[in-house]
Every structure is written in C-alpha cells, then in structure tokens.
Amino acid sequence: xxxxxxVAVMVEAETMRATKPSSLxxxxxxxxxxxxxxxxxYEILDTSPEASxxxxxxxxxxxxxxxxxxxxxxxxxxxxxKSSWGxxxxxxxxxxxxxxxxxxxxxxxxxxxxxxxxxxxxxxLMLRLSNARFFASVPVRTRDGKIVAVLTVFAAxxxxxxxxxxxxxxxxxxxxxxxxxELRKLRKVREREAQRRDRADEIQAVRWPTCEDLRQxxxxxxxxxxxxxxxELTTRKIVGVEALIRWRHPERGLIAPMEFIPKAEECGVILxxxxxxxxxxxxxxxxxxxxxxxxxxxxxxxxxSARQFARPGLADHVExxxxxAGMSGRQLGLEMTESSLIPNMRTAAKVLSGxxxxxxxxxxxxxxxxxxxLNYLHSFPFDVLKxxxxxxxxxxxxxxxxQIVRTIIELARVLGMDVVAEGIETREQYRLLRQLGCKxxxxxxxxxxxxxxxxxxxxxxxxxxxxxAFEDEAATCGV
Length: 479
Hints:
eight-stranded mixed barrel; 43% helix; alpha/beta; single chain
C-alpha cells in the first residue's frame, strides 16, 4: 500500500478500550506464526541501535511537529523499541500495547486526547513514559502486508488528529522503515559474498598491483580521468559529468579503478592519487569553460576517499584549486560514500561545512547501501542523493527494488534534495525513473565513461541535449 492509502481509526473517548489481538493475529494463530517468522527473518530483535532508524523517528518528530516518536517491533510477548526520539526506551510488554491496537484494526490508530479517555486500560506504560496526551501510530508492513512493527508519534498536548498529508508522511516513513529492513537483508548477502571473495584473494600467493607499482604509476603519470555524463531525465540535457579514474598501464592496458583503488587505500597511496584526480578535474573544468562560456552551468563530480576527508585542510586545498582554475564552487561536486565519513565523523563534519561555504555541491554516493546513510542526511549538509545502481538495475525485476527507489526519491523531495539515479541501462528503467519523479540520471543508456575528447564532443551538441539516435550510439561507445 502507498502512503495515505490506509484508513486511520480515530479512537474517541467513548470507544477507547483495551485491545486484544484478533483471532487471526493472536498468540497461537496461523497468521501470528507467519508474522513472527517474517519478523525473525529480519534479525532485528534485541540488536544494537542503528542510526538509520533514529533518523526516521527524528524526521517524524520534525515533519509532524510532535514531541517524541518511536519504532517498536512486536514478538510474542514484548515490544522491542528499535528507535525512540525524545524518550529512550529499549523494550516494553506487548500486552495491551499500541502495537496490539494497530494489529487489531489492521491499520493506523489515532487518539486525539487521552485525558478524555478515562477508561483506558491499554498502552498506559508507554504513554506515561512519553508523557503523552495524543498519539498516532501506523503499521510497518512486510512486502506481503504482515505487520511487524509500528511507527508511533506522541505529543504532550491534545490535537485534532492528523491531516491527510500528515498521515501520508507518517506512512511514508513507515514504508522507509520497511525498506531499511529489506536493505539489512541485502547487506547480509553482500557481506557473505564479500567474505567469499576475500577468502579467494587470500589464497592467491601474489597480489597485483603492489604498492610500488602504484607509486611508479603516479610518478610516470599513468593515471587519467574518464567522464560519464549526467543528464536531466525529462530533456536528456547534459547537466554534469562524473570524473572516474583509470590506469593506463603500459603492458596491461586500461585498468578499472576497482582493480587498484583498494590496494591504493591499503598502501596509503590513495591520498596523492585522490589529490591528483581533484586537481585534474579542476583543470578540465577550466578548459571546458574557456571552450564555451555556457559550460559554466556544468557540474563535475569527483569521488573523494576517506583519507582525504580526514584532512582538516581539505577545504583550504579545494579553495586554492578553485581560485587557480578561476571557477565557481558550484561547478564542483564532491561525492562521498558512507564509508568515507565513518572513520572520523567530527573531522568530516567540519570539512563538509567548510566545503559548503565555498559553494561546492556535496553528493552522497551509493545511497541506500550503508547502515547509516539516512542518519548522515541529518548530520551532514548534502545537496544530492545518488541512488545506488544495484537498486536501479533491479527495478524491473520485482517490487522490492522499485519501492526502495520510490522511497528514496520521496525522501529527497521531503528534505529538499536532488536525486541522481546511477546505472540506468534500459529504456524501461528510464521510463520508471521519470514516472517516479527522479530528475537526474546517468548510465550506459546515455553514455559510458569516456575520454575527454569524446565528452567534449557531447558538450558541443546543441543545448547539450542527447537525442535518441545519439543515445543509442553513446551506449555502444568503448570505455
């Protein structure tokens, strides 16, 4: 069900009562057994707090202008509070809980004023802990509709219920909670696959490249940048490019970054390589601006490593590069993944604030793949979310990935951010993203990463607009 599609039960004083699980969802029922099985499959019960869920409750408090919020998962006898914003609670008895009220009506429950419900025998403990006169709770459902949790907001003062828009926003956040649960499953699969790959790598007696290979490549200027266009999906106009490093090895040919960047990080060579890439991208922006002044509207995205973010002087370094190239900060976009921010959160926050003051765009790359991506939207001043290509590629394979993409786009809309979909390879993906309201995208459908000369040719197109014929041609270009 989409946000706003469920009918909320408004509980008035004369009808307020303690709820009991229905025959379909009560202990021992077939429906309850199936619900519990799906809940356990998420491996969420009695686990450590996760910042991404805190971001949801914090967003609920902000969007609905309430005092506190919580996400609670219900097993046979207790409610596990995965996140609580405004009042920290870890677990509660399930009997006569808000969770059971939502389970009973199979939908949202809203209580405008608890003070007028003198007969309440229901969720008294949670309400006392929250010091609440008003609460509204919506179900968090699995893909097949089973309720595994509730998202509840509380207010100390009575309210006249929720507007249709407020209820829709609360349900959207419940859907986002479900999507985070699905992401946890996907990450576990990825982690197992990564562990298998690591074991296979360890079997190899000799690994290439060595640290010395990378240092020599830097000295011999064997690295170069390719660029992949980013387009406005409604018009196919090129609005930016992403700089992607390559290694032109004299014997092995053109080498993709995944074959040498991990080793560069291990050796510590990633810092000089990353600085070179940033400087080279700024020089190229300067050349494109000189070639055509209209290119000043073009943004070039550069990926930064964790080591670069660990340097307090990064903003000063970027400012010097901008001045040397005679370019505006808005032409430079710095892309980072969650793993780039984790090592030193405090330093990263200061660095990003300094970069934002320069007018530089900040992009969260591979959004949705990390454990705490959502939390970083509140902690750091990002302008753009880049939807990870793994979700885009699987959009046409089933509802799960499609719903995750839909939720990310809606979340960005609520937060006032732009969205770029990565890895668009088919016209069906292109159609779905436009239908969902995604504004920008990049992928093989439009153009593969390509050399400076080929990108420069694209920038000379009338209006920088890719037509259908060129789109097909670009998709077949070599790397």
